[in-house]
């Protein structure tokens, strides 16, 4: 039996998912789950997904969330990488900024929500700011770690070959730190979606999170599950995208 | 090519080091671990702080940063840039120093052919063998027309056979390049095969500099003698060619046969204690380099025993494991059979 499993081709990974979905349908249809009203069959969820897509509701809310994520995540990541490179490369800067960052970093991104609601107000900038904070610190730390973990002998070798500090940073240190940087990006890409949903559920009238809250108030479990499926897909897609980018950049030599 | 001079160089490891490396010379720096070999290279490369003065071809370079010293450095782990191809690794220094594309292309092609690594040009370091990485690292170090080459135990990660093969090749290459080189190793055999001269460093101080032969036959300090293995030095009374490639030495009443390709004859021979085997019973095989002797003394160290044997009036010190010595029940006054290993002998020729 074990030998048979080992010989299965990769595509067979779809089988457990299919089994799960079939079981879901059966359990829900046969009312085997207590409180059947709160557990719609998979087929109902699929038809609601189609309906929400066709009438534009899902698309509109999805685009709102996606736009906020892209702006906040890109801004936070770029800022995190830039500051991380400087901190990782210049010990003086690291020693100056690290104590401050160490105090701020442990605050969860959503913990900033009440303060930002007062400073920024409830508008598009609020979720973007939350995503920025959520992305900035982890990417910063991964960048600093990546830069500092570059073997000193590579830097020495580049120096003996006549490289200036800037050239060494750009052509040796940053490329070798990329795996760490990509790890930070990959982890935070998924986290950004989790955070935005929470921010939208609390404060913002549009987006997937807001749609979920509306569905909750109307006891539309099917819509909530549709939103969760979209969330799952997007987390996975973003993580896979950065994993793909990392592999594209580093596979040849790593 | 410039020579290197160090005057009164001191830091946390080095103690008032004075060293001259001659133009185009291949100086091998030997010593035990922690003696200061790598630190000395780091001082020359401006990787380590120091007091004192360092000159390249008569010019003081203490304030000159690493990237302006025109040195090539071969690190112990080679430090090939993993994210760059072989070609990009080799051309890195040329690009960094602003050479034109034409010169870069020509120089890289020249080195790829010279070191016989053209087939590797588009590959990444992780797919190269140890020997290939060595050659690429050497090409990279000398590509930007480096005037000085520093090599920090570049063979340490290789197996003995690959190391031996590459040593021969490397020495030949370095001689063709005519580049002043300091080569660091803790392996005396490697030093003997590579060096024009050897410098021995111990506890941050240079204790002896000279020809390889001088180290074996006239060690200046106990540390040098201990490091090289305290060989038995015997003066030859006379010698004659036994057969093509072999010479017979007469040392008092002991006749020793060893490989020899020269013409001048041999005046001294060095036999390392590890190359002398002792046996309680007569060993099988031809009666060549096999003698009878009497044990005159035994010194027991933690893991080895040093046994002094009188062989026809010559006192030889043999080294064997404590277990072997106990098993054979060696005692002073006991008669033993002495076998001298053919290939481990070193000799000094008559000039």
By DSSP (H or I, 4+ residues per run), the number of helices of chain A equals 11
What proportion of the residues of chain B form beta strands (DSSP E)? 25-35%
- What's the order of the H and E elements of chain A? HHHHHHHHHHH
Q: How many individual β-strands of chain B? A: 21
**Which stretches of chain B are low in confidence, meaning pLDDT under 50 for 5 or more residues running?**
none
**Widest sheet: strand ordering of chain B:** 6-7-8-3-9-10
Fraction of residues in helix of chain A: over 70%
* Cα gyration radius of chain A (Å): 23 Å
Describe the sheet with the most strands of chain B: 6 strands, mixed
Tell me the total number of β-strands of chain A: 0
Main beta sheet of chain A: strand number and arrangement?
Answer: none
Secondary structural class of chain B: alpha+beta
Q: Total helix count of chain B?
A: 9
Question: Outline of chain B, from the CA principal axes?
Answer: elongated
Compute the CA-based radius of gyration of chain B. Answer: 24 Å
Shape of chain A: flat
Helix content of chain B: 25-40%
List the helices and strands and how they pair.
The complex is a heterodimer of chains A (254) and B (351).
Chain A: H1 2-6, H2 14-29, H3 42-54, H4 57-89, H5 91-104, H6 113-119, H7 125-148, H8 152-160, H9 165-202, H10 208-217, H11 221-250
Helix pairs in contact in A: 3-11, 4-5, 4-7, 4-9, 4-10, 7-9, 8-9, 9-10, 9-11, 10-11
Chain B: E1 4-10, E2 17-21, E3 26-30, H1 37-44, E4 51-56, E5 59-60, E6 71-74, H2 86-96, H3 101-114, H4 130-142, E7 148-152, H5 160-177, E8 180-185, H6 188-194, E9 197-202, E10 205-210, H7 212-217, H8 222-228, E11 232-235, E12 238-243, E13 246-251, E14 254-259, E15 266-271, E16 276-279, E17 290-300, E18 304-311, E19 314-321, H9 322-327, E20 335-340, E21 346-349
Helix pairs in contact in B: 2-3, 2-4
